[in-house]
């Protein structure tokens, strides 16, 4: 049986590991989080992924039962059984600076257990230059030489959360190898799960940079449309309708505005690129402006809430619906919704938030829509979820009293006119 080790079992690593397991591979999944490993061994995950009609929970249980997926914390046991190792360990950003310690720690563990002829495939999003200048030297501390004794490649991760299985299979993959044999080994491995084109670039740095730019262009696009929103609001126009019309042009593809930019990928992209840009003496003016603009959106939304409370003289209470970093997600990492809630609480607004997909516990989080809406007039919609029935708002708040601030275009102005509630859009 073919085998592979996947290190890092988060939003990327777990569906990636299970993708190989479904192809008949024996997959050793490694993560330093012992609680996570114990949950996975029991078939428990809170990810909202599915594939061919099966939820990720069902897939996980199947692959555990048939022995194709083995979660563990032990690098030594995992690496002694495989020829291929895939790394999806994150590089978080703290205070605007990338934090490499998790990746460095992972590289050191691999180095201690590295065997001849193994392929190490890095799939984390990184600061350009990381694979060659940080990851590779640590691997060679093993005493083995890259390109002769072992192989190294970098392939960018391009999935959207919620579509991971589909996009591992149907999204073109970009990669680069340390040498020709490294690239060939990586192509052969990725072909196991990817049906689309595999693009082999000339260097690690090309693929690393392309990946960061892929994310950063979305950050810039989102900043742009949120700025457009402020203009259209001043003109009493619906930004969602304006963008819908603009996007009928065949060369225009505007994103929609929202309450901010969250998750692990897009908010960190600027800081990955800027870390290298500073080293090179290059100033990223446009990218920095977009990032600063997006970081200010939660303050803009909280200002809108406070102004709405003052305008309608309603109680300083708000029901927040959706706290995930985007629609139909369980991921609350760097979620702008959390930032908005904290700002509102600091301004003396009582917040009760409902999001059935997010499992993190917060002091403001409640377990039902009814509980969130109790004794409240003002509703702030920050994310759509399958478990949030927005039409039921009016079962708990009479339409004549309801005030809804809608950042996700759940309701139209026609809805407000027909039902008689007050609608504010961003």
Automatic annotation (TrEMBL):
InterPro entries found in the cross-reference section = 6-PGluconate_DH-like_C_sf, NAD(P)-bd_dom_sf, UDP-Glc/GDP-Man, UDP-Glc/GDP-Man_DH_C, UDP-Glc/GDP-Man_DH_C_sf, UDP-Glc/GDP-Man_DH_dimer, UDP-Glc/GDP-Man_DH_N, UDP_ManNAc/GlcNAc_DH
Superkingdom of the source species: Bacteria
Q: Tell me the GO molecular function terms.
A: NAD binding; oxidoreductase activity, acting on the CH-CH group of donors, NAD or NADP as acceptor; UDP-glucose 6-dehydrogenase activity
The UniProt entry, under Pfam families, shows: UDPG_MGDP_dh, UDPG_MGDP_dh_C, UDPG_MGDP_dh_N
- Annotated ranges, domain UDP-glucose/GDP-mannose dehydrogenase C-terminal: 319-413
Q: What class of enzyme is it?
A: oxidoreductase
Q: Which GO terms describe its biological process?
A: polysaccharide biosynthetic process
Keyword terms, alphabetized: NAD, Oxidoreductase
Q: What is its EC number?
A: 1.1.1.22
NCBIfam families listed in its UniProt record? NDP-sugDHase
Name the family the entry cites: Belongs to the UDP-glucose/GDP-mannose dehydrogenase family.
- Name the UniProt record assigns to this protein: Nucleotide sugar dehydrogenase
